[in-house]
Design goal:
Blueprint (H helix, E strand, L loop, with lengths): L8 E7 L5 H12 L3 E3 H10 L3 H11 L6 H12 L7 E5 L5 H13 L6 E6 L2 H9 L1 E3 L6 E3 L26 H14 L1 H8 L4 E5 L4 H25 L1
Parallel strand pairs: 1-3, 1-4, 2-3, 4-7
Antiparallel strand pairs: 5-6
The structure holds BIS(adenosine)-5'-pentaphosphate (AP5).
Length: 234
């Protein structure tokens, strides 16, 4: 019997604002029991608790612009070094520039790792504004709702806590449009960067949430099954 190689799940989700990165990433993370790391959530927590970082990035985020690459590199490097990332991680919102993509390659190479999955969530732009302006969030647990497709049981309240849902500061139409422009200019070139080096999996995120998550989970299961079969053939 050949030695079984340890399967790893170093995963990134790319896609426009509102394309469903966070939704798919959190469900895949729960399924694989590995951390879902949202750089947007990390930054919002810093802003909410008025840390030094939060004070520096607040205005940038409110305008829908990108936080400096070097700050992001340090934030992510520090997070990926934690013990819970040993088997893998799911990055949502990082990288989003070519400089960040190269930084991630370096961070992984330092610990002899490489990316296993690059998912790109695809959806038509007009649908995104509708989705994002209807997104609501529980300020206590971060659970994400949508007034169109994913309503809370009781209007305006989180299903898990008796707390009023809030709208993100950057989910107003003008800022959403700015975030789209920033995405086109900075992150679309990054997708090309990965296209030449990794097998990108494009996911139609205009489908239902369950269907979208099924495509993502099946991709991971197929990879695992292919690797195991190859090992058995040796
Ligand atoms: P971030 O929080 O990462 O925002 P984003 O990339 O704009 O993405 P979103 O969180 O808005 O959307 P999502 O794709 O996760 O969609 P979701 O699943 O929630 O970043 C915010 C800011 O932080 C940035 O603008 C920047 O300033 C800063 N930042 C963060 N990372 C950075 C970095 N690396 N470098 C520099 N700056 C950085 O879904 C959206 C809605 O749609 C929800 O209501 C959901 O319920 C619904 N939905 C999801 N999937 C479906 C579906 N299949 N069908 C129907 N509805 C769906």
């Amino acid at each position: 019997m050949p030695n079984r190689q340890k399967l790893t799940y170093h995963t990134i989700f790319l896609g426009a604002p509102g394309s469903g990165k966070g939704t798919a990433a959190s469900r895949l993370g729960a399924y694989l029991r590995i951390p879902h790391i949202s750089t947007g959530d990390m930054l919002r927590e810093s802003v909410a608790s008025s840390t030094d970082l939060g004070t520096r990035v607040k205005a940038v985020m409110e305008q829908g612009l990108l936080v400096n690459d070097e700050i992001m590199r340090e934030l992510v490097k520090d997070r990926l070094q934690r013990a819970d990332c040993r088997k893998g991680f799911i990055l949502d919102g990082f990288p989003r520039t070519i400089a960040q993509g190269k930084a991630l390659d370096e961070i992984l190479a330092e610990s002899h790792k490489r990316l296993d999955f690059v998912f790109v969530m695809e959806i038509e732009e007009n649908a995104l504004v509708r989705r994002l302006s209807n997104r609501r969030i529980c300020p206590q647990c971060g659970r994400v709702y949508n007034l169109i497709g994913l309503k809370p049981r009781q209007e305006g309240l989180c299903d898990d806590h008796p707390v009023a849902l809030i709208q993100r500061e950057d989910d107003r139409e003008e800022t959403i449009r700015k975030r789209m422009t920033v995405y086109r200019e900075n992150t679309l070139p990054l997708i090309e960067y990965y296209r030449n080096r990794y097998l990108i999996v494009t996911v139609n995120s205009d489908a239902t949430i369950d269907k979208t998550v099924e495509v993502v989970v099946n991709t991971v299961l197929e990879r695992d099954s292919t690797l195991r079969k190859k090992e058995e053939e040796v």
